[in-house]
Design a protein that fits this description.
5 helices; about 55% helix; alpha+beta; two-stranded antiparallel sheet
């Protein structure tokens, strides 16, 4: 996967628990946990907006693009 999620890092920096973020964002703990662990294939912009609002961050703070490489060739 080329998109790496860093939600756990931002939450730790803000000293915010999954439960607290869930309450602020209005998304279940289970769904936020999936985002936190990167076990998702999509995220709604409304959810991303709510997470950024609650954590006072930019989307780029919680998501990172990393090129897939195999044998030194950019895929």
């Amino acid at each position: 996967m080329a998109i790496i999620l860093r939600l756990d890092r931002v939450m730790a920096d803000r000293k915010m628990s999954l439960k607290e973020l869930s309450e602020k964002v209005g998304v279940s703990n289970v769904n936020l946990s999936k985002i936190k662990t990167g076990k998702i294939s999509a995220i709604r912009f409304s959810t991303l907006n709510a997470i950024c609002e609650a954590l006072d961050c930019q989307p780029g703070d919680i998501m990172e693009f990393k090129r897939d490489t195999r044998d030194g060739i950019i895929m």
